[in-house]
């Protein structure tokens, strides 16, 4: 549920209401996206193991992608990973 304000257009609000998400291109810099992607990869490869983080995998993709990050569909409770959690604190977000 979104509130009437001047942050999102009426169309953006309706899309969010209908679909539960909203994609805003270039909201976050390419440099930050690359840093977050690298940290995500490190977590998927277990190069780092943030305390309490859960890696959710879609096992039906295992035959197609093996043990790659492409089977990971969610990383949850990653607040102890300072680099990845920084995304949540970006003013743009």
UniProtKB/TrEMBL annotation:
InterPro entries: PhyH (IPR047128), Phytyl_CoA_dOase-like (IPR008775)
Gene3D superfamilies: q2cbj1_9rhob like domain
E.C. numbers: 1.14.11.18
Biological source species: Pterocles gutturalis
Assigned keywords, A-Z: Dioxygenase, Oxidoreductase
Family assignment from sequence similarity: Belongs to the PhyH family.
Protein known as: phytanoyl-CoA dioxygenase
MF terms (GO), sorted A to Z: phytanoyl-CoA dioxygenase activity
Pfam families: PhyH
One annotated GO biological process: fatty acid alpha-oxidation
Record's signal peptide: none
Source taxon at top rank: Eukaryota
